[in-house]
Amino acid sequence: MGYCEDVQEFRDRKDAHFRTGKGPIPEDVLDEFTGLSYYGADRGMSYVLPLTRAALDASAEFTLETNTGEPRVMARYGTVTVPMLEGEYTLSVFAPLGEDAPQRVFIPFRDATSGNETYGAGRYLDAPVAQDEAGNPIVNVDFNMAYHPYCAYSDGWTCPLPPRENWLPEAVRAGERLPVQAN
After folding, report:
1. Closest by alpha carbon to 161, among 67, 90, 92, 86?
2. Is the N or C terminus of the chain more exposed, i.e. has fewer CB atoms within 10 Å?
3. Which residues pair with residue 53 across a beta bridge?
4. In this predicted model, what pLDDT tens digit does every residue of 81-109 receive, in sequence order?
C-alpha cells in the first residue's frame, strides 16, 4: 500500500470511529454523519524534521489559552522549522507536563485557511517523535494528518488554541477541512 492509500485508510477508520458515537459528533446529527471532509493526501505536505529541544526546567511550562477560558498547561517541548512554499516557519511543539520522552508531540496551528476552508480556531497535529541515525530527535510533521479540535463539532469541549507563534501566514491545504458547500 502506498502513502496516499495509508492516509485514506486512517481517515476511513477515523470516520468509522466517529460514526459509533464515541467521537465529537453530536447524537442529534449522528444519523446524517457520512464522514469528515479532507483535502487530498499530498506526500509533499509531510516532513521529517529535526526537533530543537526546549530547556528542561520550569521555563518549559507553557499555558495554552482555550476556547472556554480554562487554561491548559503543557510543556513547551521544543520547536521544529517547517520548509514551506513561501518560507520557513518555526512552530512550537508541546508535550504533557513531566513527560521527558514523549512518543508524540502536540502541534496546534493556524494558517491562511483558518476560518474559511478550515476551523477558524485552528487545527492540530499529533506528531511522532523518533531519532535519526546519530540519535538526535526528529519529528514527523505530516499536515495530511491535521485535524480539527473537538470543539469544532459541538459545544462542551475544551480545546487549546494555537499560540501566536504557531500562526502560519500561508495556506496549509492538507488534512481535515470544513465541508465543501454546494453552490
Report:
1. 67
2. C
3. 78
4. 999 989 999 999 999 998 888 999 999 99
pLDDT in tens, 1-39: 799 999 999 999 999 999 998 889 988 888 888 999 999
* CB-based contacts of 170, cutoff 8 Å, min separation 6: 84, 85, 86, 87, 111, 112
> Is 0.85 surpassed by the pTM of this model?
yes
Q: What residue ranges in 18-122 does DSSP mark as E strands?
A: 37-38, 46-50, 52-53, 61-64, 72-84, 87-95, 104-109
Q: Which residues pair with 118 in a beta bridge?
A: 114
CA distances from residue 80 to 27, 49, 59, 90, 140 in whole angstroms, order as listed: 38, 6, 18, 6, 10
Tell me which amino acid residue 118 is.
Answer: T
